[in-house]
Amino acid sequence: MRMSHxxxxxxxxxxxxxxxxxxxxxxxxxxxxxxxTMATRSATQVISPVALATWVAKYGxxxxxxxxxxxxxxxxxxxxxRGSGNGVSSGGSNASFYSTIQYGGLDLQLEFDSQARVAQxxxxxxxxxxxxVILVEGVDMPGGPMVAxxxxxxxxxxxxxNGYPRIEEVLRRSPQIVSYLxxxxxxxxxxAQKMIDVICARLAGQ
Length: 206
Hints:
By secondary structure, this protein is an alpha+beta fold. Helix content is 15%, strand content 33%.
């Protein structure tokens, strides 16, 4: 079966200067693939005081999306807002996906082979099997990040009425993930913390 690859990056930056832009940014409208084929969409976004989430989802001509992979990049509170020039570039073809994530003055690399169920995180091979979530720890530590583990969540990706993917609803299905995201941590900037509070409320199902 042929798969067309449409990668749509969402980079939400919670710094005071960019807060207004980040809060109103929406993913591009999806172009549904022809019947019998699949397409891919992806995003990287701030998901908690300590973490970014990179997710990859597949969808068909019916528009129904399912999660293929989630990578949770965790560091110290607010690590992603340090430095400047934050952004994401992603792409791929057929069953492959790659992404370069530039946040907090760091370059994070992800490659993913969805057929083999193998990912490369900063050059570290991760054999996923039936898992679809990778937990990455210490992204801002001097020794670099490490893979803390993998797990699986139910893969259906709900959509809001405006078509925006509700990734928080996927993540909150796992108490382990909710704990890993550390919503009890606080950011030093109060305005940024207010935006994070909204995201964490969704993770809590509020």
